[in-house]
Amino acid sequence: MADKAFITPNVLKWARESARISLETAAAKVSVPSERLKEWEEGESQPTIRQAQILARAYKRPFALIFLPDVPRDFQPLQDYRKMGSKSLGTASIFIMREIRQKQTWISEVYEENKEEKLPFVGRFDITANPNQVAEDILRTLGIVPAAYKSDNPISEWISKAEAKGIFISRTSFIHSRLKLDSDEIQGFAIADPYAPFVFINSDDWNAPQLFTLVHELAHIWIGKSGISNDISPEIEDRGKFHPVELFCNEVAANALIPLAIISNLEKSTFSSSREVFKIAKVLGISSFAFLVRALNLKLISANLYLKMKAEADLEFKAFLIREEEKRAKQKESDKKGGPNYFLLQLNRNSRLFTQTVLDAFRGGFIEPTQASNLLNVQVNKFQKLEAQLYK
């Protein structure tokens, strides 16, 4: 007979509920009826050690945790700045926030213990500031000049420049192959820590919306407001549903990505040609829609022209989506043959800066192999391949 695991019932229940996993889903993972799992959570019977280990992994909690005498103090949840009426955060959203918080807490504590200097731009402003002033400070600090990007993929340049200044940027769209992130729940979040600020971006979208999300989250860092965001958009139809912080950060992002000095100096004919709008938007790394909204807000185009151009932009966007689907289909076929690059996926998920920091600490003997592996989600014997990807 298998050995029983004398877990703490209310801790087991808390671990499941805090992971937003239903009783039925959790029970299926250990192939028992939901009534049996309920018995374990109420202390009427005990799982086997093997069953308890499976549940702990499913809840993404250390096995030892479910034996604690009482529910532990968990990470404090991030401020929820999402639009009123948003979907409840699901398991994937909870897991990615917990994962990033663990990474961020570790690196922040290391930097503080080493007496690293605080980053001066974290919390430099508040929402009473002029959004354009904040945008200009972000561009100046990171050394970015919109419309003068060095490649046709501006988000990569933004990430590289942000990490060079000590901001950790994580991007992923999944926890694992069967647990995807929902952009309706969460598009991004920011942890505005003075030692180790972290930004997360849900990458389940094309690059232009991701870039807007990234700069929106950087604005959170600049005003010192940690929190979760969704439905990030350059246009907000019902402003009453949005938190003032979100409205402000959207304004900052619009000013940073589409500076007044650039858009106001364009020829008037630009605003009446969908093809010209698309070309300019592509150079700026944004969507045609974002460009048109900015032009409307600055009164560079009329409401009627905006509606006409928006309709044309919508048609172009639908055509763009068809092309993107074709590309994704080809990519899936390629992935089936060779598989996606696991180490590149982990590199983006961990953040390149965080990966480099952990590997340096490991190579220098400052952290144990197990801790380094847990922080990077990569086995120690695979570190060499991860590091090789880092320098590509």
Question: How would you portray this structure in words?
Answer:
By secondary structure, the chain is mainly α. The chain folds into three domains: about 60 residues, 434 Repressor (Amino-terminal Domain) (Orthogonal Bundle); about 170 residues, no CATH class; about 50 residues, no CATH class. About 55% of the residues lie in helices and about 5% in strands. It is built from 17 helices and six strands. The protein has a four-stranded mixed sheet, with helices on both faces. The chain has a two-stranded antiparallel ribbon with strand order 2-3. Helix 2 packs across helix 3 and helix 8 crosses helix 9. It is globular, with a radius of gyration of 23 Å. The N and C termini lie far apart (about 50 Å). The model has no long low-confidence stretch (mean pLDDT about 90).
Topology overview:
Blueprint: H1 9-18, H2 23-29, H3 34-42, H4 49-58, H5 91-113, H6 131-142, H7 154-164, E1 168-172, E2 174-176, E3 179-180, E4 188-191, E5 198-202, H8 207-222, E6 227-229, H9 244-257, H10 260-263, H11 274-284, H12 288-297, H13 303-338, H14 342-350, H15 352-363, H16 369-376, H17 383-390
Parallel strand pairs: 1-5
Antiparallel strand pairs: 2-3, 4-5, 4-6
Helix pairs in contact: 1-3, 2-3, 6-9, 7-8, 8-9, 11-12, 12-13, 14-15, 14-17, 15-16
